[in-house]
Design brief:
By secondary structure, this protein is α/β, with parallel strands linked by helices. The protein is 32% helix and 26% strand. The structure holds uridine-diphosphate-N-acetylglucosamine. Uridine-diphosphate-N-acetylglucosamine binds next to α1, α5 and α6.
């Protein structure tokens, strides 16, 4: 196991390129099940992508990775199964369910369990796919689905705008018979990216990015050849890093139009974020940040995936910040760890109150989930003395070359072998 050793106190300076989006790459890679052929570029090199490629390989697809491009082609027999061993390491494996039923008429997918940030059921995915005609059973921890003939287009109104649920139904509907209308659909930019990729293969989709998506099923899809959008959460994490460590960083391939709520909140806190030409942005800290409140919400609201990093930034801000989490029921696991660095934070239900302190002091902390680990790393950049972050395998799931990018910006961060069993 590995850990990060961070010597805080260095300002960040220089340029960083934002990698391709993890959360857009995952569903598009699974969309290759529908098309049988895919060439995806700008795919970030990180563990969830490796897991997805492994899953596709195990199903019988030929998967080739070269740099940031992944090519998938269906070879001979396809095994329509996603086993426990892979699903347990990545909940997003559930995104193969819709494509498998739509293309092969059957699927057997291990039920994703809960995770550190909450229960995270998939009931809405299953309800919607059943409505499209799939016969779904849950037995011994596996979801088994079958359809006689093709899935049928229908109207689906989600109780909650679930991102994964919307993606599963969107993909399944491209090969269903007739028209599917998804109401109360999630509007996240990654869904727009998925729809654009599918359209390249001939899918008929309208309304992505709004809460009503209409899909007219076709009998055949061609190859997907697509470049993934930049990762808005990675970009937001680097903004938060500048908010903590200070300095001036130019970000390239910055997905400006997808980060409205995040930019607004960091600007409200006093960070300077200047749009330059050619998808570049200059982020500059000129003064101590001011305490600022956020409420996490579905897109276009403030993303839950930026809550931990924003909280870390508020730990050193002047005044009080109130942070309310409305998407996941247990997404404050980083609070205890930030407290180890000296942060003054209290939790009441789904709300956290941060009283900004003058300084954070390095300590040993343990990452509990992907975004929590990012919050600890960036807090470590601003803490005095040395911070050691354990269980960084969480971070490796979703950030491409995080420590290398930070090193290039002048941070003193090293990956070392952990002396602990984790
Ligand atoms: C996706 C993102 C994740 C992000 C989340 C919310 C990927 C791979 N992951 O996760 O990074 O934090 O969106 O923006 O893109 N729910 C149900 N039943 C369901 C489905 C969801 O109750 O069938 C609940 C969940 O428990 C959660 C909420 O709905 O409380 C949002 O979940 P959802 O939007 O589905 O998130 P994911 O797709 O899992």
């Amino acid at each position: 196991m590995e850990k990060f050793v961070i010597k805080g106190g260095k300002e960040l300076k220089g340029k960083v390129r934002i990698s391709g989006s993890k959360n857009a790459s995952l569903p598009i890679l699974f969309a290759s099940i529908l098309t049988g052929k895919l060439r995806l570029s700008n795919v970030p090199d990180l563990r969830d992508i490796t897991t997805t490629c492994q899953l596709l390989k195990q199903m019988g697809f030929d998967v080739r990775k070269s740099g940031n491009t992944v090519e998938v082609e269906s070879g001979g027999d396809i095994k329509t199964e996603a086993p426990y061993e892979l699903v347990k390491t990545m909940r997003a494996s559930i995104l193969c369910l819709g494509p498998l039923i739509a293309k092969y008429g059957r699927a057997r997918v291990s039920m994703p369990g809960g995770c550190a940030i909450g229960l995270r059921p998939v009931n809405l995915h299953l309800k919607a796919l059943s409505k499209m005609g799939a016969d779904i059973k849950i037995d011994h921890g596996y979801i088994t689905a079958e359809v006689n003939g093709k899935l049928k287009g229908c109207e689906i109104t989600f109780d909650f705008p679930t991102v994964g649920g919307t993606e599963n139904v969107l993909m399944a509907a491209t090969l269903a018979k007739g028209k599917t209308i998804i109401r109360n659909a999630a509007k996240e930019p990654e869904i727009v990216d998925l729809a654009r990729a599918l359209r390249k293969a001939g899918a008929e989709i309208e309304g992505e990015g709004t809460d009503v998506i209409e899909i007219r099923g076709t009998s055949d899809l061609k190859e997907i050849d697509y470049r993934v959008m930049p990762d808005r959460i990675e970009a937001g994490t680097f903004i938060a890093a500048v908010g903590l460590a200070g300095g001036e960083v130019e970000m390239e391939e910055f997905p400006f139009e997808t980060l409205g709520a995040v930019i607004e909140k960091f600007e409200e806190a006093g960070l300077r974020i200047e749009k330059l030409d050619g998808n570049r942005v200059l982020v500059k800290k000129v003064d101590r940040l001011k305490g600022t409140d956020i409420i996490t919400q579905p897109y276009p609201g403030f993303p839950t995936d930026m809550q931990a990093q924003f909280m870390a930034a508020m730990c050193l801000a002047d005044g009080i910040s109130v942070i309310k989490e409305t998407i996941f029921e247990n997404r404050f696991m980083h609070v205890l760890e930030l407290q180890r660095l000296g942060a003054n934070i209290s939790i009441e239900g789904n709300t956290v109150v941060v009283k900004g302190t003058e300084k954070l002091i390095g300590a040993k902390v343990t990452a509990t989930d992907l975004r929590a680990s990012a919050s600890l790393v960036i807090a470590g950049l601003a803490a005095e003395n040395t911070t050691e972050v354990y269980r960084i395998y969480h971070l490796d799931r979703g950030y491409e070359k995080m420590e290398k990018k930070l090193q290039l910006l002048g941070a003193d961060i090293r990956r070392e072998k952990s002396e602990l069993p984790y």
